[in-house]
Amino acid sequence: MKEIKKKKIKIKKKKKFYTLATIVLLISMVFTFCFCYLLTPKIEIEKKKATFNYDEKVTIPKYHAYAMNKEIDKKVKVKSDVKEHEVGNYFVHYQVKYSFFSVEKLALIKIVDKKKPEIILKGSKDVYVCPSEEYEEIGFSAKDEYDGDLTDKVLIKNDKDKIYYKVEDSSHNTFVTSRNVYYEDNEKPVITLKGSNKIYLYLNNTYQEPGFDVKDNCDKNIEVKVSGTVNAKKVGTYKITYTATDNSNNTSSVERYVEVISNQESGKGIIYLTFDDGPSNSITPKILEILKKKGIYATFFVINHDDSLNYLIKREYTEGHSVALHSYTHNYQYIYSSVDNYFSDLNKIRDKVYKITGEYTNIIRFPGGGSNTISKKYQPGIMSQLTSDVSNKGFHYFDWNVDCEDGAGVRDPNRIYQNVIGSLSKSRENVVLMHDFENNYGTLNALENIIDYGIQNGYQFRKITMNTEEVHHRPNN
Ligand code: ZN
User: Structure pTM?
Assistant: First the structure.
């Protein structure tokens, strides 16, 4: 009994000990756990995944790290393999160490291409093909901002009268476009006249048709109907019409005018005022005002200026004056170096005037006149050649027999007036050389007096036409 009692006491003592030990252990575990928990750093990342277009600037997700209730952002090491502007998936690695603990976290960065590629069609979206022909691809190009040139990747599908073009970029963005093909001919034939569209014919001469060419986009052997007649026995303007029709009934027509003129008029007692080297902003409009006020017509031998002055040539023409040709460049060295240069320059100013007035003129004046000697320096004998060549080509060239001398530098209106009136003669036609180049106020200021003198003394003022008797100097070269 005593022994049993002793054993029970022993057991009780042991139990007490274990309970106490357990408590101590638990307390120390809790304590350690708390201690470790507090010492373990933590990282919070704003976004675990971020997506950017390849052309955007990549910003790595923000983070916040702390331990023991303290901010330890500065201890965070960030590593990333992000390649900006390159499509792909990348990781950002965040690591922080605190005491003997280390914590890591990852964020995903996606760089994507959401922009579509583009196909650029050459030619029109609506294509017309001759009914008897097949469509031939006109061409295209494809590009993508990310992949660059994708022309080779374009897929073409032909669906009856529609052609589809499709392209896909490396990020599977697609682009589709199309064009319509019409098997129709809606282009007119083109008639090109040989020779000028305005022909001068002397009374009682025979009109010879210079001919024409015709072309059509689809059809060959197009017939051209020529209608209209020229009565060479009667002065007047005659219209000849050329009409062409293709197999699809597209019709075009062009016209040519034939002017039958009487034999040259003799202009005794007539004054032809001529102005060279214009037009100019400062002088030409004022000359036109004076001419209008006096009700007379003059002749302007124009050269090429800035296109902003074209309206003055147009005004000369619409106000009834004669717009004639002087030179495109007025560059002696160029035009008198060769016959080809001369005519190339002349045709340039002739085309320019035609574009402005709608009429081709054959009335010309040589820079420096037909008797100039400066051309000797560039090509001996060229003036003898040119003066005969221009006539053979149907041009009428005019020198002068009255010189106001503004071309030689005279600027005094009185001297200019005297120079003109002192040379006028009733027994012949008078071609007066003057200039309307920029700031030529001397001539401008003498003009009204010259006209008044002419009117008071029984002269008539006319513009030069194809009927005017030509006044020539003797060539000196
Ligand atoms: Zn000149």
Answer: 0.49
